[in-house]
Predict the structure.
Amino acid sequence: MNLIAPVLLQILELALALVLAPLLTGWVNQCRAWLQNRSAPPLLQPYRQFAKLFEKEVVLAHNASSLFRAAPYIIFACMALASMIVPTLSTDLPFGPAADAIALVGIFALARVFIALAGMDVGTAFGSLGARREMLIGFLAEPALLMVFFTASLISQSTSLSTIVETFASREFAIYPSLAFAGVAFTMVSLAENARIPVDNPTTHLELTMIHEAMILEYSGRHLAFIEWAAELKLYVYSCLGLALFFPWGVPQGADLSNLPLALASLLPKLAIGGALLALIETLSAKMRIFRAPEFLGTAFMLAVLGMLVHLLLETGK
Amino acid sequence: MSGLSANLSELLSIDWILLLIGTWLLIGLAGLTVLRDVTAVARLLYPLGALVGMALAVCAFNALGAPAEIAVLPLGLPDLPFHLRLDALSALFLMLLGGTAAGISIFSAGYLRKGEGSAAGLQCLQYHLFLASMALVLLADDAYAFMVAWELMALSSFFLVTSDHRNPEIRSAGYLYLLIAHIGAIAILLCFGVLQGAGGLAASNGVADYTFDHMRAIRHDTFWASAAFGLAVLGFGAKAGLLPLHVWLPEAHPAAPSPVSAMMSGVMLKTAIYGVLRVSFDLLHHPLWWWGVGLLALGLVTALFGAIFSAVQSDMKRLLAYSSIENIGLLFVGIGLTLTFQAFGMTALAALALTAVLYHCLNHAVFKSLLFLCTGAVLHATRERRLGKLGGLIHPMPWVAWLALLGVLSSAGLPPFNGFVSEWLLLQAFLFTPGLPHGYINMLIPVAAAAVTLTAALAGYVMVKFFGIVFLGQPREETISRQAKDAGWLERTGLVWLAALCVLLGLFPVFVIEHLDFVTRTLLGTGVYAASGNVAGSHGWLLLAPISADRASYEPLLFLLMISAIVVATAAFVHRFWHGRMRRGAAWNCGFPIQTPRMQDTAEGFSQPLRQIFEPFYRLTRELPTSFDKAPRYSVVVRDHFWYLIYLPLAHLANLVSRGISVIQQGRIAIYLLYSLITLVVLLFLVRG
């Protein structure tokens, strides 16, 4: 009995992630359309997209290698694994210990390296352009993300995400300056990592400004569907991560199925609000030139380091 | 030989290892008998050398947990025989040497070609002498034996580097290597002098005693201990490629044949790490905290420098050489952290940091030699080292490409491969630094972790560039893809062996750490694995992080299984419920009709954003075309500031001084006779006074 509940919760968490991720993207797109005074696509549009793409046959370039064909599955698997590690339904999950916060950053990096390599595989001008830009964004965002996790780890004395969430949820409610810095840095990193405006535009049709889209131009059919799904999962994982780190209330501590309604009741509204805020940020800001992106991410990195310093200077002295 | 044969009946590990080293020397000498017979050397001698390497790794593995063993070789000067000692630290590095050498030797067996460099038999002798001397460095237990082995290592590797000595570039690279190796050797010699001399001659009955045992027994005062430490860092740093003595690395690695670059980068740099560890933890006992902080800062600068420069290289071996500098920097960061923790008496945390260092030594040895060997295979297949001419090699050379991918993922520090484990351990060690009982140090060191993460992320960029440009895309030169052939079976065996080590080291960290414990216990008195029992039950994080963390917080095997399961499940799912139809067509490329391989990113193009971000770090020479040029040319050359700010002024100074001295050199015998007369008169005057 002791083992069944956590495993069941784990499977449920994965299934929830797979189902909710496209919905979250649909929701963000809907909100953005409303904010921009356009008529919105239906909430289930991403699912229709998948159905269409799965139905279509794959057209591969003549010189695409097997790495190109394997990459979508590997990227999807990385994101699915990431969604199993971030505590959303419970902090006590069997896969939690398999990877801590540092390993989570490693998973994102693994997926990024594969998508960049796949972008370079066919050898088109746009593919390598996208890969280069993606790696540029990645090498700046990754340390910033790690520094955010470091701040959280220093506070909770652990790099395990479950412990971090448990510590944060049980702390008395107050504004912690270090976490405020970390939160801003995390938001900036999330925007960049998920190919959102101001760094990248997920709906762009202008090749020269593309980052994420440029890499996956050569993909079609089921491969494209998995890459899109992975991108949506990534957005979902980042959202859950942000909620778990900065708004951890409501995540049940034990692995008990009876807590499930409470967990869902806290997760869904938080995600909905988060998605709406993302749409708001995207509507209010303009996409910047690619060479401003290092400055943007450099700021995020500095803020994260500052957060850590603030924690060490102000919050440990007591 | 009498001492050896007397012990032979008891067959201690150290005797086995000495026998194996002797076998390497014999194999090398056998090369002389078949000097120009490439087939005999390649098909017989190198595989034998690989077997000896394997045996050495097994012997050393067995000796890891055993108590230290001593042997005295009746070689050397009268009254000054070679003292040898095999303890856990030596055993670990011997294991690293043997295991890596096995892969590289078997690769060399397939790699050797007629007419490349010096005669095959001679190369065989130099190569095996190089291996044997590295093994002796690791075993030496007195300064004399150590220096002899160290010089033998430098010289044999010098001859290997300049094996293709008809090329003037290679000659000058070899000369630079030899020069810096000797600056280092002098510093090491002085370091041993300080370590020995602090006791004075009186302590050893008027005879200078250069055994390490004697040095261990002496209690050095702060000043002399610091001097010895500084000299050791200078000397071993020169060999390892620590800033600012790194300049030989990017010259010597591309010049050497690929298996030699692999050996130098994978193993020889580690002998320098071994030396630093031996001096700072075994011969000196009480580190001061500022040694640690200084080394940490030096390591950080080296790591960042290496990463930034490897990103902009256009030659695949230079790129890997700079990446080695980066990894050496990270190793020194770890050693600095260990020293700092130990200076404050936090041995459990020192053990954690040291474990990260030792783990990374193993990892870097394996993945860097794998990558260097892959460049060798590419070089033979295409005759091309410049990234700008390669591309698309995954099609003609699938074996090399996929094995290189494993090396690339390990080197980029990605889970679940080996590079990630040591990076993870190092970051965990950093997370403890706020506990240091020292005002500002405990706040500044965690910030250093930011630089470490930046370096690690840059390594990912570099590795994507390396793999993507060499193996993916379209061939940038027509002829290259047509003539390229995959590596032969001997070369493949070597690559597979090293790649398998990458994967195994990544998947079973707990097993590895359990064995690294023998070393940390020898040097620090405690180990990560052993300490888990001590700390358990006190603090959640203390119990979790350094120790059972590998089990509790990062499980690579589960990680890999999960990813594979999801990959298989999703592929099966979509094929079962939809279809697996696939068609080949032209690349879409957004409908642009004209596509040539020239439109892909070149090596320079791929690193252009980094050149822009880190511009002040480089010395750039650009040639940009204007719109009126008849034949527009674009070129950009990235050079090293250190070369212009330190080395060239020094060389200039040396020239000036020697020119000044040459004034007294007139070339007439009468004047030289006059000098002798003056000297004689002055001496007589002095003696009389």
Summary: The first strand of chain A starts at residue 58 and ends at 61. The first helix of chain A runs from residue 4 to 35. Residues 4-142+160-170+203-281 of chain A form one domain. Chain A touches chain B through 84 residues (CB under 8 Å).
